[in-house]
Every structure is written in C-alpha cells, then in structure tokens.
Predict the structure.
Amino acid sequence: MAFSLLKVTKPKPLDLSVSRSFMIFDSVVEERVGLMDQDPSPPPELFILPEKPKPRRDQPWAWRWNPWPPRSVSQSRCSVPPLLRRHHPRQLPLATRPEPTPKHLYAAVSGALLSYLSFGFSSNLHFLVPMLLGYASMVFARSHCGIITFILSFGYLIGCHVFYMSGDAWKEGGIDATGKHNISLSSRLVISCAINYNDGLRKEEGLRESQKKNRLIKLPSLTEYFGYCLCCGSHFAGPVYEIKDYLDWTEGKGIWSHSEEVLSPSPYGATIRALLQAAFCMALYLYLDLQQGGNIYFIWSISEASIILSGLGFTGWTESSPPKPRWDRAKNVDILGVEFAKSSVQLPLVWNIQVSTWLRHYVYERLVKPGKKAGFFQLLTTQTVSAVWHGLYPGYIIFFVQSALMIAGSRVIYRWQQAVPQNMDAVKNILVFINFAYTLLVLNYSCVGFIVLSLRETLASYGSVHFVGTILPIALILLSYVIKPPRPARSKARKEE
C-alpha cells in the first residue's frame, strides 16, 4: 500500500497526521517521481535490522545499536527519564516542600544533563546562545525586547538550519540536535518570555486576555529563567508553556497554591492514561510500522505523562459535580481529533496543540491591528513563520503555504454550512461531509512537500495529480466572493457582549 513509498524514501515525521496520507497518490507518484522500482514490493534489506553504527563523540550513548530508529531512541530518552524522576514534592507535607530555587536548579541541571547525554556538549552551547541573547535584551532594552529577541532567536535558528541541514539528517534516519525539536522549542520559550516582559510595560486596556494573563511585571532571575528554558519535562519534545505558569507552579501560587482550602488533585489517573496511550502508539509504530504517526504520538504522550506527574500540567477544575481536575497544559495532540477532523480549521486545534497556541498568541494575533479582524494575510504569515521554523527546504515552505490555502478554503465551506436553514439538515450534513472529504484530499496532497522536501520532487508529485490540491482551495476562495452566505443571526445577548 501507500506506506511502501514511505519506507523507500525514509521520510521525516510529519507535523500533521499522515496515517491516511498518499492513499490517492500512490501509483502516480511512483510513476512520475520515480521513487520506487518497477517491483512494488519493498527491497528485502528494508526488513533487516540496521547495522551497528560507529560511535560518535558528540553522542555518547544515543547512537548505541538498537532496532528502534535512532531519532525515536534519542527523543524517548529525553522524555522517559523526566517521567521516572518527576514525582514532584507537591505531594509532600507543606513543611517539607522545597523552596523554589532548588526546583529551578534541578530543572536547569537535569535538562542540560539530558541534552548532553543525548546530543553532546555542543547542544547545550546551541541552547545557550538564544537564551543569553533573550535575557540580555530584557535587561538592556525592555521596551523593544520582544521584537529583538524574536529576530535574534529566529535568525540564529535559521543559521543552524543552513549550517546543519537538519532535514537531510531526518530523511536519512538520523537526528540533529539543532533541528526543530530542540532549538526551535527553546527559542519559543525565550521569545514568549521576552514578549511577556515587554507586555508588562503596556496598559491592560490595550491587551488581549491571554496577554493580560501572561505578562511579566518583574524580570525573572537567571535561576528562574534557566530553569524555565531547560525544564527537563518539555526541553526536547514539548509542550510549550508560559513562564508565568512555570513560576506559579514552582512557587505554589494560583491554582497550585498550598492551602487546606484548595484541593490537591491526584495526577496518577491522568498519568496512567497518557502512559497507556504512549504504549499503544509505540506498539503501532513497532509492529504495524506506522512511521508517520505512531512515533510522534508516543513521544508527545510520554512528555504529557511527565508534565502531568510533576503537577505543571494541571489547569484547574471542571464545573461538573463533583469537580474533576483538568490536565490540558501538557496535551499536545488529540489523536482521534486529528484522524477524523471534520474540517481543516480543526487541525491546528488537535495537532501540536501547544505550539499552535503559541503561534496564535505571539504571531497571528499580534499581526492584527486594534479594531480590525484577522484575514488571510495573518494566516499566511503565521504559516510561513512555522515553515521557516522547520527549515529552509522548499518542501516546508510549499506545505505550509498550502496549509494556509487549505484552511481558508475550509472556512468558506464552513460559512456556507452555517448559512443553511435549520430545517435543511440533509443539506447541512452534505456540506459537513464535503468539508471532511476536502480536508482529507488537500491534506494528503499537501503532505508530499513535507516529506520529499526538494522543489523538483514536490512539483512533480503535485503535477502528477494536476495540482488538484492547490487549485481546489483557490477556487473556493474566489467562489466565496461570488456566493456570499449571509452572516448567521446572533442573539441579543451575544450582541450586547
């Protein structure tokens, strides 16, 4: 089936679920791009365990022979140790709880140690550069520290992409300490910290709710800053979280306040659920060879379990009776939501959830002028930023531009669906199915660029199906100017809000 193509090309894991990818392109891609031989069966050597690679000085033990792919081994080792050691003192009596400073030191030292064990000493130097640049900008140029840190961190990441060509390493089955899973994650933490410190100078009247919640009035100490950036529970695989939440967690404030009146939720049930999910995903990856979903689901699930167990993943209580704890801060993927998304608009809400939230708060919303609504320009710019963050390969740029078109086209179908009268449920259900089929088609089409990366192979793959995944969204966007559905009527209470 389609996964024979994925085995031959040894692609890099996608940032969108492609367990259903390529189902409509198999034969045409084989013919046009020439990635497969005439014999449709995979070569016999693909089923032989890899030879033991030569040890590398900069990777002391991450490359020891193992039948698991090296990148999965290294990332798993970055996530499993925090899980085993993250029984946080939040469960201890109040008198024995450690002060915040030891927690920050533990987070920084353990994160740096895991980085060294997996990628060598040079990886910590790469993390140190954007961290120090960001902190220096907060100290010496607070009024502009957000944009300065964004430009410097982004520029350093681009330089690493150019020098190390991390996409080639991933396509060959290797791993790169400077790739998207490492410096890009720490850069997001550095940038969000600087922007929130910059927001501390602004009046609350001109801020969004998320900006009011996350803004920093006081400069974090170096110990707090390094603990936040290197916290071992999310240093390599995510999730991205805010420094305000990290400080409240370590200091026992807000929803983590230590008092007899505040309930102390037990993390064990949610942790076990995340571990079972991780085990199931790894079983799919190992035994069914679902290379493009199982390993990413596994890594994120392990990371989620470690953050939940530490207590940082707690986000409050539900309004049900009795109330139940919510552990949404560590959730990075909704597997069923990804696999059965009804529209393209839902995909950023269920895949790489915390990074999607970061992009919305620090790129998308900040491009919208006060009193104006976001449009296609803000969406395209956000997707372009995400593309460059992954690397400078043409396949990345094309994929994320395609995703912007895909989401815009899906919004058009959704607006038509909302305009259908309530007594015409059959028509509305047909539009729901059309949106689902549209998402499936354009997503599978677009993902080719993310896998092959090169411009020639991407265009050849798209051309093999007559660029249907590009033409269809553009046609829907243009058609929306001709068929303009009426805006759904809002209730009086909603208008008053």
Summary: Residues 352 and 493 are 34 Å apart (CA to CA). The radius of gyration is 23 Å. Strands lie at 316-317, 325-326. Confidence is low (pLDDT under 50) at residues 1-79, 84-96, 491-497.
